[in-house]
């Protein structure tokens, strides 16, 4: 098949939407399909080229003044690629794919990554709308997307072409006992809750250390909060890491405290690393953790519950070992090959004009 993926950019900045799109494009090219990514570009262009995926520059923006240039660029893209499928991963790309040409000879597939955004309803313009978890599918159905056009393909990262098969050496060496999170430094990710939970935990375990792996717009505010809460020397803001596996491999407890999290790739990465996991019971987190079998689930925005769950895993060796083992179970469903097959099946259905069923 001839497949075009639309995304805002291809930057190596830890953006889960882009990471998933790059994985999918590369795996589809490996499967023998003709794959093109159209975006404003970025560091993933080298990988895409190496995997046989063509990249075409198509800057996308919701600004109206950019519309004429976007439409012209999109129409050139369609004329050049003559795709069977245009797969849009973000709102602007969805509108371009659906309305950018008068005579459409391709099917439009959209993936809803961040359904908590108001603009997510626009992803419903796809001929098939793919949710990254069942929780997202249910949300999109409530927003009016017919069930017949909804499918679910859960995210996965195992076997990703973005990372070398073997993880990098464990550097730097982490202090123990430790808590690790890999997340953007934004309010949505619950970083303030982790900091407050850590302050509570240190009353019982003053030797504990916290590693916050990631960067983002609220990092300075979180660093200030860390100082206010005390013991900033035990809290490490590492910045963005393109390959966080050395941190995951050394984590005593991995935490994802998001307030909203449709289908976080990092939970797949943490499970592959065999982490003992604590996550908030929101959106797709329970599905990514087998309903709570593969990790402890706590309410969002509740630092005390978070501290209690982390403390349990750090102090109860049997429980810690059990959750590490459970994290490693049933991992075949998190392989990028399974994700690729799921989308190719959907492409075949919509390409032949069939109504997909979930």
From TrEMBL:
Ranges for domain Glycosyltransferase subfamily 4-like N-terminal: 15-156
SUPFAM superfamilies (alphabetical): UDP-Glycosyltransferase/glycogen phosphorylase
Recorded GO MF terms: glycosyltransferase activity
Domain Glycosyl transferase family: 175-328
Database matches in InterPro entries: Glyco_trans_1, Glyco_trans_4-like_N
Coiled-coil parts of chain: none
A UniProt-annotated Pfam family: Glycos_transf_1
Gene3D superfamilies referenced in this protein's UniProt entry, alphabetically: Glycogen Phosphorylase B (3.40.50.2000)
Lineage: superkingdom: Bacteria
Transferase as UniProt keyword: yes
Keywords: Transferase
Protein name: Glycosyltransferase family 1 protein
Protein source organism: Trinickia fusca
């Amino acid at each position: 098949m001839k497949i075009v993926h639309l995304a805002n950019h291809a930057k190596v900045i830890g953006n889960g939407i882009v990471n998933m799109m790059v994985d999918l494009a590369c795996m589809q090219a490996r499967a023998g399909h003709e794959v093109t990514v159209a975006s404003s570009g970025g560091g993933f262009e080298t990988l895409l080229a190496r995997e046989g995926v063509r990249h075409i520059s198509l800057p996308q923006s919701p600004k109206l003044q950019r519309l004429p240039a976007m439409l012209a660029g999109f129409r050139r893209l369609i004329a050049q690629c003559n795709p069977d499928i245009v797969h849009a991963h973000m709102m602007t790309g969805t509108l371009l794919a659906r309305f950018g040409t008068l005579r459409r000879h391709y099917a439009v597939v959209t993936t809803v990554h961040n359904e908590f955004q108001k603009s997510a309803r626009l992803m419903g313009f796809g001929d098939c709308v793919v949710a990254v978890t069942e929780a997202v599918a249910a949300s999109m159905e409530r927003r009016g997307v017919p069930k017949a056009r909804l499918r679910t393909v859960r995210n996965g990262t195992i076997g990703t072409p973005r990372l070398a098969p073997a993880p990098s050496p464990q550097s730097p060496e982490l202090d123990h006992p430790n808590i690790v999170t890999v997340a953007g430094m934004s309010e949505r990710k619950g970083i303030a809750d982790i900091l407050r939970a850590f302050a509570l935990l240190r009353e019982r375990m003053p030797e504990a250390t916290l590693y916050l792996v990631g960067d983002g717009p609220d990092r300075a505010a979180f660093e200030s909060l860390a100082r206010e809460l005390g013991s900033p020397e035990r809290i490490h803001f590492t910045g963005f890491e393109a390959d966080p596996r050395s941190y995951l491999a050394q984590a005593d407890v991995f935490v994802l405290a998001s307030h909203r999290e449709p289908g976080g790739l990092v939970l797949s990465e943490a499970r592959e690393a065999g982490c003992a996991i604590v996550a908030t019971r929101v959106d797709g987190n329970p599905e990514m953790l087998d309903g709570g079998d593969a990790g402890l689930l706590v309410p969002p925005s509740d630092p005390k519950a978070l501290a209690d769950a982390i403390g349990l895993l750090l102090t109860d060796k049997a429980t810690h070992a059990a959750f590490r083992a459970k994290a490693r179970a049933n991992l075949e469903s998190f392989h990028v090959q399974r994700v690729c097959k799921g989308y190719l099946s959907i492409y075949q259905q919509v390409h032949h004009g069939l109504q997909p069923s979930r």
